[in-house]
Amino acid sequence: MPRYLILKLFLFSLLCTQAVRADSLSADYDLVVYGGTAAGVMAAVQAARSGDSVILLEPGEFLGGMTTGGLGATDTGRGSTVGGLAMEFYRRVYDHYLNEGNWTHETREDYLPRHHLNVNDSLKAHWFFEPKVASDVMAEMIEENAFPVVYHARLDRENGVTKDGNRITGIRTEDGKSYRAKYFIDATYEGDLMAEAGVSYIVGRESNDDFKETLNGVQTLPAYRAAHVSPYKVAGDPSSGLLPRILPERPGPEGSADGRTQAYNFRLCLTDVPENRIAIEKPEGYDPMEYEVVLRHIQGSPDIMPGNGKKSGLFTLTPMPNRKTDSNNKNLFSTDYVGMSWDWAEASYGEREQIWNQHKTYTQGLLWFLGNDPRVPAHIREEVLRWGLPRDEFVDNGHWPHQLYVREARRMRGAAVVTEHNATGEDVAADSIALASYPLDSHLVSLYVGPDGTLMLEGAFFLPVTPFPVGYETITPRREECENLLVPVCLSSTHSAFGSIRMEPVFMMLGQAAAAAIGIAEQNGAAVQDVPYADLRAQLLDLGMVLDPASKPAASPKAASQAESGSTAVAVDKLAKAGYISNANYWTALARPGKQMSGTNVGVLTLKVVSKNIEPVENVTQAFEVLEREGLITSSDYWAKRAIPGGSCDGGHVAALLERLSSLLPGQS
Q: Which residues 6+ apart lie within 8 Å of 215 measured at CB?
């Protein structure tokens, strides 16, 4: 038997155990990947396939991060932008579900119609999946590539990084083990290695002024969103004190910077199959006051039910195979534990464990409250009690997801910064290593009391984008800080742009790209900042990565821009001929990325079109709510705040709005 095959089989046997013994491993590698998220796994797989010696260090005891931790409803944005190992992963999942034997509680034929985004047969990609299936696929990819994985390898965050000048020479974990390598990748959600290596970073939100953005900093939602929920312990009585996690005043001026992060939650896997269902129990430390805002929201929303419909709330029931769910936050008061994420990024390991447990208690308590508190309407209680934890998921963690959804923690300040202007197409990275295409998305950051004593919400936004490139320099630290580290997860981005980048497929692609870049650098010991982009691009394309948006081919970016503006011109022409627009030149000139348009003009146009073509409305806010209800826009919040007298709207967003408005005109599809 060939020697390399003996070695591979030996490593395979090690990987089939829960953990590789750290003292059985070499201490020197071409690459150390710190963090067993999906990005970390893909980075290690890429390095191994390239022939580099690589080790994957996971601070906890589970691999895959959110991809295996309950987030089964993949946030793809546009599936055609997913490539490389990420697409390989989703195609392996697709192949798994082609096997009839893997359907235990429903058939594939029964499942497919239950959600329009679950499978793409043309791409042979299965975007929705059970957590255990994701774990199995990850394990297969690791085993096939025979690299060592060490669990419980938490970085010593006091003195765990050694450097020679601006190069990391080794890292030490809390158990005293040291790992030396030529290059390092930090693939954690928190950026602990990056921080300990002395690389600059930010926690929280920048000011809108910092990068001339519109969605950054404090972002107050319209008052009507929570007007039916009193913030006081005794409804309407300020002297009774505030309910939990509600601030006494707005955290800062609109658009101003702060150190707060958007809310975290668990992506719960639930099932309604009786023989596979474990009932939700009342957690230790249960506090009904935590759910008072939920109760008041229910009382003010008589039609609300769990689920995914337009009037649904409380939590989603997005269908996964075999009658399971990926249950996420839904609307205002749900599974997001608003205000409890702020300390996570800089917290010690012990403090993070405490925050994790607080989130678990809150989430488990929420489900118990909704299913058992007599103040909750009976029809809601009955629906919630139909659902429980699956017996066959997270069997080594009490059937509870192991990964807290750390949506955002540290963000590096590297050689370049992704901003809103990249997402709108005004700025285009010339060194693309992956595409982001999911909407700019932030969950709530704060709850506070407004000047008139009403409950106010801030921090959330959701704004669609067209696919945009993420550049290599954004995963690269500044040269003077570190020249042998790449950071594909806590990359250099503003808070608002990170809202699109932070999706699991993008993280996987960035992880693979980071390992590919290091493979090039390693050939001559170069700094990561000196990797020739032409070489990296060629290799990534060979690996099946998608680097250029379909609407913006690399060979002809100007032509793509003209095509985009052409579709806007068609929409403007239709609206002008119908009498809704009097100055077509104004709209075609300004309805494009990088331009700003009068909020008054946008609001008046929308009010007219909606009132005549859908239903009469009294004001601009109602007009955009109708568009949201009809599925023509994903969220009315952005427009309600900007399409008003004195407001301004991004021209790129207006262009998309014009196309949707023109589609309402008679004779249009």
A: 208, 420, 440, 442, 461, 463, 496, 499, 638
Which H or E run includes 638? Answer: helix 637-642
616 in a domain, yes or no? yes
Q: Is residue 565 part of a domain?
A: yes
Q: Distance between CA atoms of 492 and 186, rounded to whole angstroms? A: 13
Alpha helix ranges (H) inside 99-182: 108-111, 131-145
Assess if residue 597 is contained within a domain. Answer: yes
Per residue in 120-154, pLDDT (tens digit) is 999 999 999 999 999 999 999 999 999 999 999 99
Alpha-carbon distance of 154 to 179, in angstroms, equals: 12
3-state secondary structure 407-422: CCCEEECCCCCECHHH
How far is 237 from 510, CA to CA, in rounded Å?
A: 51
What is 181-228 written as a DSSP string? Answer: EEEEEE--SS-HHHHHTT--EEESB--HHHHT-SS-S--BPPGGGGTT
Q: Is residue 207 part of a domain?
A: no
Final residue in a domain of this structure, among 330, 361, 390: 390
d(CA 296, CA 646): 34
Structure token pair of residue 27: 């201490």
- Here the tokens at position 140 are 């297969």
605 neighbors 580 (Cβ within 8 angstroms): yes
Domain boundary among 375, 390, 405: 390
d(CA 639, CA 652): 13
**Cβ 608 vs Cβ 578: under 8 Å:** no
Rounded to an integer, what distance in angstroms lies between the CA atom of residue 615 and that of residue 597? 25
64: DSSP letter: B
Nearest of 405, 419, 438, 403 to residue 491 by alpha carbon: 419
Residue type, 93: V
Sheet holding 446-449, edge to edge: 246-247, 446-449, 455-458
Is-contact 605 621, C-beta < 8 A? no
What residues make up the domain containing 360? 274-390
C-alpha dihedral sign at 474, 480, 483, 489: negative
pTM attached to this predicted model: 0.84
DSSP string, 325-339: EEB---SSSSS--TT
Q: Rounded CA gap, 318 and 72, in Å?
A: 9
What does the chain come to in residues?
A: 669
Contacts of 554 (CB under 8 A, 6+ apart): 547, 548
Q: Which residues of 446-455 are buried (b: 16+ CB within 10 A; e: fewer)?
A: bbbbeeeeeb
- Both tokens of 612, joined, read 């005549």
Sole residue written with tokens 């000139």? 589
| Beta carbons of 303 and 485 less than 8 angstroms apart | no
| Structural domains counted in the chain | 3
Most distant CA atoms of the chain, gap in Å: 80
Residue appearing with tokens 């009403």: 454
Average pLDDT by stretches of 10, the chain with 669 residues: 34 40 68 99 98 97 98 94 97 97 97 92 96 98 96 97 97 96 99 98 98 96 91 97 98 97 98 98 97 96 87 92 97 95 98 99 98 97 98 97 99 97 94 97 97 96 94 98 99 98 98 98 96 97 91 30 57 88 85 84 92 85 85 80 87 88 71
